[in-house]
Amino acid sequence: MTKIHPTALIDPAAELHPTVEVGPFTIIEDGVTIGEGCRIESAVRIYRGTRMGRDNRVCHGAMLGCEPQDLSFEPARSRPLVIGDHNHFKEGVNVSRGVKTKAGTLIGDHNYLMGNFHVGHDCVIGNHNVLGHGTVLAGHVTIGDHVFVSGVAAIHQFTYIGDRAMIAGCAKIVKDIPPYTIGDGNPARVSGINSIGLRRGGIPAATRRAIKQAYHTLYHAGLNIGDALARLKEQGGHGPEVKNIIRFFERSERGVTAHR
């Protein structure tokens, strides 16, 4: 049977899998769905309509699906927070529901959100990301897969952090950070390739060299970005990682962060 502490308040309209555990003084509102094997610890609040997959852990004091910190918010425009599987929300994590996009706020699978991390409304977070203590995402931020965000960083609204990028501690991100790079500084610049992250992720040496060469063309060949992208496409024969870099630059709406 579901293990619910007697001090927890669970709305009758919430749906919890029989294996879910709920700690003391937690509040789970109506319309919440929590999947198999989830562990909800003490003094957590899960707000109306939040949907969560299986095997997630939510630690003390976390708040999931709360009202967005947006002066234009109206409850009638509310969109849900949807969470995948195998995520870990540490103490004091705060994740807003959506308000301005049809999908709302989305969190994928196997993410680790450290203490006091804030996710603004309508953000999209992919899979296998590590998100550091005290960092804040403004609304509409997109984070790819296998991203490492260090502590106390601030990420501007509508920015996109590419796959396997790393954000340094205390960085101020105001433009998109391209895949496989390091964003550092205030405001941030691309300081190089995330070589350690790529090696730890099992990316082969030949692929790492191809990524480095692609960024040499983009940042160090004396070309503007349009001409550099054209040269990369003319070369052809690229693997999926370089193709991902090209797509990222072509689709960036806010602009890609310059090299230091």
Automatic annotation (TrEMBL):
Keyword DNA-binding: no
Gene that encodes it: lpxA
Superkingdom of the organism of origin: Bacteria
Example of a GO biological process term: lipid A biosynthetic process
Known EC number: 2.3.1.129
Signal peptide coordinates: none
Transmembrane spans: none
Record GO cellular component, one term: membrane
Protein name: Acyl-ACP--UDP-N-acetylglucosamine O-acyltransferase
Domain UDP N-acetylglucosamine O-acyltransferase C-terminal: 176-256
Molecular function, one GO term: acyl-[acyl-carrier-protein]-UDP-N-acetylglucosamine O-acyltransferase activity
Swiss-Prot/TrEMBL keywords: Acyltransferase, Lipid A biosynthesis, Lipid biosynthesis, Lipid metabolism, Transferase
InterPro entries: Acetyltransf_C, Acetyltransf_C_sf, Hexapep, Lipid_A_LpxA, Trimer_LpxA-like_sf
NCBIfam families: lipid_A_lpxA (TIGR01852), PRK05289.1 (NF003657)
